[in-house]
C-alpha cells in the first residue's frame, strides 16, 4: 500500500551540529509525519560552541536543487532559513514564483547566536523586495525585525508597530518572536494578520540550550501548513512544539545546546 504524504521543503543552511538549519527543519518535519525535502544554501561548520566556518554553495548548485524539486516534488509548504546572499534570495524567490509554491514561511535568519553573519548586509534589501511579498508568514526575532524596519523595537507599542510595518512590506502574517525579550516569566510571540493581533503565550525556561529555537518553530509552522492546518492552528501547534522542545531539553555539547525535537511527540503520546 502506498501512502499519500504531505511534503514540506526547507531552503536553508546546514548546521553540522544538528540543532539549527536544515537538520532542525528535517527533524521537525519528520516528528510531524511530514515528508521533508531540502535545498542547501550553505554548509556551516558549527557546534554548540559557535560557527567555525561558512561555505556557501555555488549559485548553480542551489538553482539545480530548486529545479530538481520544482520539476518533480510539489511541496505543500516551503520555509526559508539561512539564505546568505542577495543572489540566493533572488533564486529562492524566482523558484517560488516559477513553480507556484504556496504556504511560504520566511524565517529571516541574519546572525548566529555567536554573532557570525548568516546573511550579508547587502541582502537585506533583496529580502524586503523579493521574499517578504511572497511570505504567508514571516517570523523575525527582535533584532531581525529591527534590521528589516530600520528602527529599534523595545516597547510593546514598538512591537505592534513593527508588525504592522512588516505586514505592509507584503507578508500576510507577521510573528514577532519574544525569545529575546527582557521578561523572566514569559516568552510570548505577537502575531498580526492585517486585521487582528494575538499572542502565542509560553513560559520562559531558564536554560542556555536554545540553539535553533527559531528554526524549529518556523519548521513546525511549515509542516502544519503542509498538512493543511490554518495559519492560526499551525502557529499554536508550533508554540507547543517549541515549548516542549525547550522545557524537556537534552544535554548535547558544552555550549548553547540544541532543543529536544522529539519532546512534543512523546508528550502527545503520553497524554493519550
Ligand atoms: N527560554 C525560552 N523559554 C521559552 N520559550 C522560548 C525561550 N527562548 C525562545 N523561546 C521561544 O522560541 C521561539 C523562537 O524564538 P526566538 O526569539 O528564540 O527565535 P530566534 O532568535 O530566531 O531563534 P534562533 O536564532 O535561536 O533559532 C519563540 O516561540 C520564543 O518565544
Ligand atoms: C545553518 C544555520 N541556520 C540558522 C541558524 C540560527 O540559529 P541560532 O541563532 O540558534 O544560532 C544557525 N545557527 N545556523
From TrEMBL:
One of its GO terms (molecular function) is hydroxymethylpyrimidine kinase activity. Pfam families: Phos_pyr_kin. It catalyses: 4-amino-2-methyl-5-(phosphooxymethyl)pyrimidine + ATP = 4-amino-2-methyl-5-(diphosphooxymethyl)pyrimidine + ADP; 4-amino-5-hydroxymethyl-2-methylpyrimidine + ATP = 4-amino-2-methyl-5-(phosphooxymethyl)pyrimidine + ADP + H(+). SUPFAM superfamilies: Ribokinase-like. Keywords: Kinase, Thiamine biosynthesis, Transferase. Residues 15-260 form the Pyridoxamine kinase/Phosphomethylpyrimidine kinase domain. It comes from the Bacteria. Its EC number is 2.7.1.49, 2.7.4.7. The keyword Coiled coil does not apply. Pathway: Cofactor biosynthesis; thiamine diphosphate biosynthesis; 4-amino-2-methyl-5-diphosphomethylpyrimidine from 5-amino-1-(5-phospho-D-ribosyl)imidazole: step 2/3; Cofactor biosynthesis; thiamine diphosphate biosynthesis; 4-amino-2-methyl-5-diphosphomethylpyrimidine from 5-amino-1-(5-phospho-D-ribosyl)imidazole: step 3/3. Belongs to the ThiD family. This is Hydroxymethylpyrimidine/phosphomethylpyrimidine kinase.
Amino acid at each position: 500500500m502506498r501512502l499519500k504524504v504531505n511534503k514540506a521543503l526547507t531552503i536553508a543552511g546546514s548546521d553540522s551540529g544538528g540543532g539549527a538549519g536544515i537538520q532542525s527543519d528535517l527533524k521537525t518535519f519528520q516528528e510531524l509525519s511530514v515528508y521533508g525535502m531540502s535545498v542547501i544554501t550553505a554548509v556551516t561548520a558549527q557546534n554548540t560552541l559557535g560557527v567555525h566556518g561558512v561555505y556557501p554553495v555555488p549559485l548553480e548548485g542551489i538553482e539545480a536543487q530548486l529545479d530538481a524539486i520544482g520539476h518533480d516534488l510539489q511541496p505543500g509548504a516551503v520555509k526559508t532559513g539561512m539564505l546568505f546572499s542577495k543572489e540566493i534570495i533572488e533564486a529562492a524567490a524566482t523558484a517560488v514564483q516559477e513553480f507556484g509554491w504556496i504556504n511560504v514561511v520566511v524565517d529571516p535568519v541574519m546572525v548566529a547566536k555567536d554573532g557570525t553573519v548568516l546573511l550579508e548586509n547587502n541582502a537585506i534589501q533583496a529580502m524586503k523586495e523579493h521574499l517578504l511579498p511572497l511570505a504567508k508568514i514571516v517570523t523575525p526575532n527582535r533584532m531581525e525585525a529591527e534590521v528589516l524596519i530600520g528602527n529599534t523595537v523595545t516597547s510593546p507599542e514598538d512591537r505592534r508597530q513593527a508588525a504592522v510595518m512588516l505586514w505592509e512590506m507584503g507578508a500576510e502574517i507577521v510573528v514577532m518572536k519574544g525569545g529575546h525579550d527582557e521578561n523572566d516569566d514569559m516568552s510570548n510571540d505577537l502575531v498580526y494578520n492585517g486585521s487582528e493581533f494575538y499572542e502565542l503565550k509560553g513560559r520562559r525556561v531558564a536554560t542556555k540550550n536554545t540553539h535553533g529555537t527559531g528554526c524549529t518553530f518556523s519548521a513546525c509552522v511549515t509542516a502544519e501548513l503542509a498538512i493543511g492546518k490554518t495559519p492560526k492552528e499551525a502557529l499554536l501547534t508550533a508554540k507547543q512544539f517549541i515549548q516542549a522542545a525547550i522545557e524537556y531539553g537534552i544535554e548535547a555539547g558544552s555550549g548553547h545546546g540544541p532543543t529536544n525535537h522529539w519532546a512534543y511527540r512523546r508528550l502527545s503520546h503520553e497524554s493519550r
